[in-house]
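Thread: Modeling a multi-component assembly for a lab meeting

Hi all, long-time lurker, first post. My supervisor asked me to bring a structural picture of a complex we are working on to next week's group meeting, and I have zero experience with this. I have the sequence lines for every component (450 residues in total). Could someone generate the structure of the whole assembly? Inputs are pasted exactly as I received them:
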Amino acid sequence: MLTAEDEAALRTLSYRTREFGPDEDLVRQGDTPQAAVMVIEGELARYQTLYGGKRQYLSFYLAGDWPDAQGIFLERLDHSICALNDGAIVAVFQHDQLRGLIGRGPPIGYAIWRETLIDAAILRAAITNNSARSGQTRMAHFFCEIFYRAGRARLVHDRTTSLPMRQSQLGETLGMALVTVNRTLGSLRRTGAVEFRDGRLCITDWNTLAAIAEFDPEYLHYRAQ
Amino acid sequence: MLTAEDEAALRTLSYRTREFGPDEDLVRQGDTPQAAVMVIEGELARYQTLYGGKRQYLSFYLAGDWPDAQGIFLERLDHSICALNDGAIVAVFQHDQLRGLIGRGPPIGYAIWRETLIDAAILRAAITNNSARSGQTRMAHFFCEIFYRAGRARLVHDRTTSLPMRQSQLGETLGMALVTVNRTLGSLRRTGAVEFRDGRLCITDWNTLAAIAEFDPEYLHYRAQ
DNA sequence: CGGAATGTTGATATGCCTCAACTAAAGTGG
DNA sequence: CCACTTTAGTTGAGGCATATCAACATTCCG
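Re: Modeling a multi-component assembly
Sure thing. I ran the full set together rather than chain by chain. Output:
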């Protein structure tokens, strides 16, 4: 979430936009990218590939997010980034131009730094979520995070936001087998608080879901809206 | 891992050192610290506390690491940091002094930024480790990471490094019950590759352990030594 | 129409959690 | 000095949650 001033600074750079389709990679583990992107539309996901090809999703990016700002200062990528939906659009900024902008004055640099730090806070929450919570709580927490962030990005309409993932991907996010995802989803649905179907997440009873999830949005470090 | 130039810049600041004992908190979840620390000696750990008091360890810090640099730009802490051993010593830098230093010129700012990005890479690896790997592989990977980082910090002697944790804390790191930790530790010990006892980690057969762990140090983003 | 992708449900197997008992070492106080 | 307590580690037994295997439903697409 950049300020108007930050956005103005970015607009002084020449950038281009690119569009991606579902499961299409923007960058791959091992790459050394020369550009960083900001999400304009649609959703992206970060994942790692293990020996044997197994995939672990790490985090998800909505409009306004910077999924690979760490690449400005780290060389080789330790993960891949793919688009989740059809027509995901990103703005591409060359690293050297961003570095120049950052070097010329702090505000935009601090803002991007801050973005990478909130990204890390989301990673911390994911460790705790996947390591210390029950299946149901874990899934509820994931839904709460996505929904809360989508709300902040003004992407919630009719208590619903887009979450273009298959159940198998949900499993590769939360560290559960596909069958377990399906059953856990069923048990959450039966609470009447949440529905996830056809790539859409609908939360009908936020308080109940947040209670199941033990969700506290503090870690997202949003300022008062 | 800062350059000599970075260290010289830091020395222009007035800082003080503080010493902590085992399980003593440096900062707590919810705090708004005004200073950041660099580890001088001993080991620190980051952890989150869940509803009900359950604890999840997130990451560990050795000499030279910056465990709470994110606090320079994020207000409220989403986690706590404690010392693991007796006589853990840190250098304390006031945020406003660090911000001043960062604002005056990029090198040190970039270096600290980079530290926070490597920290995030370690968090990504932890998500994958705790979510997608078997108990044995997970524990082996954790040992490999600590040992590798300790090696880089010149803290390995006689194939052994200090890792002042109890088995219960290992469980709260890897998302396993204490009993499972004990048995997994036994099965690793029986491979003859590693021994963890009395707060000391001894790796006698690195290649075997790294193979069990599927360990690839790339994500630590070390430059050629 | 046939095939692929995704979701659903049942049955079985297994890894891990929980409970419990016990050992060893270290610290404490009478 | 020696009971007593506390802490950490170890081992066994049983049960539950989740992984795995399998069958089938539904939708979409060529």
